[in-house]
Fold this sequence. Notes:
YjiS-like domain-containing protein; mainly alpha; 69% helix; YjiS-like
Amino acid sequence: MSPRLHALHLPASLPPLSRMLVSVALVLANWEDRRRTRTSLARLDDHLLQDIGLGADSAASEFAKPFWRD
């Protein structure tokens, strides 16, 4: 997951509706990032999975998670 999405803090000076809309946009961006990352992970072969320190079972269980689960 992209660290930039976790590090963003909304200024208190934003109106409440703006804060809510930005928060919703950030959640949607996190979900899209997870979906894209897990799809890419599913495409890796066993050799590349070993290079990043994952087994096929670990990769499969990560890919099987719904996009909204961390």
